[in-house]
Design a protein that fits this description.
This protein is of the alpha/beta class. The protein is built from 10 helices and 25 strands. The strands form 8 sheets. The protein has a 5-stranded parallel β-sheet, covered by helices on one side. A 4-stranded parallel β-sheet has the order 13-12-11-17, with helices on one face. Bound molecules: flavin-adenine dinucleotide.
């Protein structure tokens, strides 16, 4: 098993094995546009400028602040304040010279190499990097202003927290797990544990009903099955192979293949795909046309030239997670700089992923993995000996979780 401290050390060096690219010297270098200021996009924009200061880099993001999903389950259970997971783009702009534009990309013309902005403008690019995250599938009757998913952080996180706090003693917190792949493979099980811990301490007699679309726990199975069958045996009721037929958002009733579930708090997480922006540009050609197929040497689309897709929207076998989106962004930024300079991407990139998972209010577990390029398949493959999870949750891991997240936040948003 990979030593967890290796991940803390290597986070800022996702390209540990890669040489620094040469700095472009042109006074007005090529224009790289990055769409989406999350873990993938913010990291890509920062490292493009860090490694190639003369490049023109524009980051387009509709929101002034980014609310991190990483650690957001702790906000749901009131263990962490929202400001601990809130970031702005001032550091990217002032310290790295990224041109941050607050706008939404409405469409992409990949032939003309232009973007249209929701505000009405048009922007041209030499290379485009997309990291727009995910879009949720629709579920009949689901109104997320009443039944939050809290799977994009921000108002949704606060709404779920408010509903959990208002839940009566003995109440039923019903939550769903979407069919894989979804963002943060351990995330729903982590939320079930964090909420179960909250219920045990604050809502006597309450329970979590966890309805999983998958046939089994999809990540960190040892950690979560131990928790579900051990400390939470009386609090978490876990069902597999559950399909959702519809939601009564006012009455908080979920209709499934197992029957109806009445909830005091209902937390439905719909299945995901790459956003329409990606599909409409002709990029969603992987995973049943739900994700963008890319060449992981550069993250360039396999459908369209000069467009790269990283983070949750891309369709490689890597997990959809913030840590690895940060890692993919560095591989992509390096490759884009080399391609713009007339070179080729490096031939054997590696990426890594780590997730620390709170199991109670003072213990956490972790899950890690390293992926490398596999020339035979042209994809990224996990290095088997790097895959692992903690033997059991500890207080030490709970403390390390904040160091790990702090490093990831600082590296991504140039914060602090
Ligand atoms: C509860 C929870 C816990 C998690 N915990 C962990 C964890 O412990 N470790 C981990 O590694 N990962 C974790 N994750 C997963 C992680 O949050 C995501 O995988 C990560 O955010 C993906 O990064 P991204 O850049 O692809 O997308 P995002 O971070 O979602 O960023 C996408 C950005 O694109 C912007 N955007 C979208 N459309 C447009 C447009 N048309 N124009 C301009 N901008 C646009 C959005 O506003 C957003 O800011 C967790 C997720 C959840 C839900």
């Amino acid at each position: 098993m990979q030593n967890r401290r290796d991940f803390l050390k290597t986070l800022g060096l996702g390209l540990g094995a890669l040489a620094m690219p040469a700095v472009l010297r042109a006074a007005t270098g090529p224009h790289v546009v990055v769409v989406g200021g999350g873990f993938g996009g913010a990291t890509a924009a920062k490292y493009l400028k860090h490694w190639s200061p003369n490049l023109q880099v524009t980051l387009i993001e509709p929101n002034a602040n980014y609310y991190s999903c990483v650690l957001s389950n702790l906000v749901v259970v009131n263990e962490l304040n929202m400001n601990r997971i809130t970031f702005d783009y001032a550091g990217l702009q002032s310290r790295y010279g990224v041109n941050v534009t607050q706008d939404r990309v409405a469409g992409i013309d990949t032939m003309a190499q232009t973007l249209s902005l929701a505000s009405g403008g048009t922007l041209s690019y030499d290379r485009l990097i997309l990291s727009p995250g995910v879009q949720f599938d629709t579920i009949p009757g689901l109104d997320t202003s009443k039944v939050p998913h809290a799977w994009k952080a921000g108002d949704q996180t606060l709404l779920l927290r408010q509903q959990l706090q208002a839940m009566p003693n003995g109440g039923n917190f019903v939550m769903t797990v979407p069919a894989a792949p979804f963002r943060c493979p351990p995330g729903p099980y982590e939320r079930a544990c964090a909420v179960a811990d909250f219920i045990k301490r604050h809502k006597p007699g309450g329970k979590v009903t966890l309805l999983d679309a998958n046939g089994d726990i999809t990540a960190a199975k040892h950690t979560f099955s131990t928790a579900f069958n051990g400390i939470y045996a009386d609090t978490i009721e876990y069902h597999t192979n559950v399909s959702i037929m519809g939601v009564d958002s006012n009455a908080r009733v979920l209709t499934t293949n197992l029957g109806e579930f009445n909830a005091d708090v209902l937390n439905v997480i719909p299945s995901h795909r790459a956003p329409d922006l990606v599909a409409q540009a002709g990029l969603s050609n992987a995973g049943g046309n739900r994700w963008a197929g890319v060449n992981p040497l550069s993250y360039e689309s396999t459908a369209v030239a000069n467009v790269h897709v990283i983070g949750d929207a891309q369709g490689t076998a890597q997990p959809k997670a913030g840590h690895i989106a940060n890692s993919e962004a560095k591989v992509c930024a390096d490759a884009v700089i080399r391609l713009l300079g007339g070179g080729q991407p490096l031939p054997s990139p590696k990426t890594n992923s780590a997730c620390y998972t709170p199991i109670t209010s003072n213990t956490a577990s972790f899950l890690t993995g390293v992926f490398r390029y596999d020339p035979a398949s042209g994809g990224m493959k996990a290095i088997p000996e790097s895959l692992g999870e903690a033997a059991s949750p500890t207080r030490e891991y709970y403390e390390e979780m904040f160091d790990w997240a702090g490093n990831l936040f600082q590296d991504t948003f140039a914060s602090g």
